[in-house]
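pipeline stage [seq->struct] | target=Sensor histidine kinase | organism=Winogradskyella pulchriflava | residues=356
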Amino acid sequence: MLKTDFVLKKIGQGLLHLIFWCGVLLFYTYFFGVGSNNFNDTLVYSLFLMPITISLTYVSIYKLIPDYLITKRYFHFILYSCYTLIISTYLVMVSIFFSLIYISNFEYSSMNPVTKNILFVMTGIYLVTFVVSAFKLMKLNIDASKKTKTLETKILETQLKLKEQELKYLKMQIHPHFLFNTLNTMYGFALKKADETPEMILKLSNLLDYLLYQADKPFVNLNDEINHIEDYISLEKMRFNDTLNVSFTKNLDSESIEIAPMLFIPFIENSFKHGVIKNGILNIDISIETHANTILFQIKNNSTKDSNYKNGIGLENTEKRLKLLYPNQHQLTIKHDENEFRVALNLNPKSALENG
């Protein structure tokens, strides 16, 4: 099937070339027939010029332009173009002698007036060559543009696939880390046979449901993410009992904002994990605000200068995810002093959705 298509394509190209050269022959007959009343002599002379024109044109479009001009080998292009000009000039002179000897029978006065002028004959031949070469050059440029565009598309697709694979890898790291912390909390309750254990299992069930069915989505509704955070905070309140004071404030001006899932949880996890209990209380303040499709997430907790937050898997992966999902569309500020650890994340999720 492919071979048949190839043969048909070549036949079609051959017919187009044949039709074109027939048109050139008609042009020559008219062009070189100016001032002459003998159509047959003009036709014979035009036929003699056709092999010269065809050879010159094909050398130009199949050798000089693609091999030297397009590849920017300008010295060789000029050199071989000069060779071609010299050879074609010689052949035109031969055609004039042909007109004089075989068509006019050595009678210079009976020669076609046009064929007496070598510059006029050269103009006719090179006019055809230049027109065809211009079209060939334009076609090569169009093909090169298409190939460049196709290559750019493939590169973008490859980059997108790599980006998706890296994001999946980061999520795979976040999930076990998150589950490890949560199961540790529940294990402690089970050891104490606490009455809150069933409620804790229910909260964990909600968290797992979110992990299994929401976290694999590219984007989730901000309200769903907030509900997930609240379930996690409820679990931690059970674990810390009276030693925890969590303030979670929300100020949302839109119900339709979507973000990447599991984006805020690593910061909240680190606050519980690395937060320092001072005067018998671990204070954590969390706030999420939205203004004109911009999200401001802030969290701060008790800390000491010796606490190390930036080495955790969750924080490192979250920073990488932010760079992949929201390049140039987020601002993450992490401050750590002797008393507090603070995180501020300014996010433009709308831009990320457009890029995604």
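stage status: PASS
auto-comment: The beta strands are 220-221, 244-251, 258-259, 282-291, 294-302, 330-336, 340-347. The chain has nine helices and seven strands.
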